[in-house]
User: Fold this.
Amino acid sequence: MKKQTKFVVGALIIIVSLGWLAWVGAKESKTYYHTIAELSTPKGAEARHRMRVGGTVRAGSIARYTGRVDFVIEGEGKSLPVSYTGSDPLPDTFVDNSQALVEGRLATNGTFVADKVQAKCASKYEAAPGQQKKDYENPGYSNKKS
Assistant:
């Protein structure tokens, strides 16, 4: 076999392998955003996709166990039980009535098994009542020099 033929065959094997790895990686990293109300409708392969779901943590629903944290998120008049099994610690802002975004898969029993949780507590970042907003928070603020 000629050197040039060996080179072409080797290059094709490498290119095909890299293309296959890129395709599989892109397919696995897709995450679809759904509302809690939409989770009652996914069927077949769609139900097995990674998803993100957002809602408000129900007060009194956070239960901590060894290796997992269970809680319920609510939104649009619906609720969704969530079981967080990720290895990262939950954020400090993850408390009752906080906004949470969970990422994972829907289990066959209707529980959402999350491996990532993001929490937001809007009241922590708002100005205290009676406190004036800083210039950069005012809509008329301009960074230009006169």
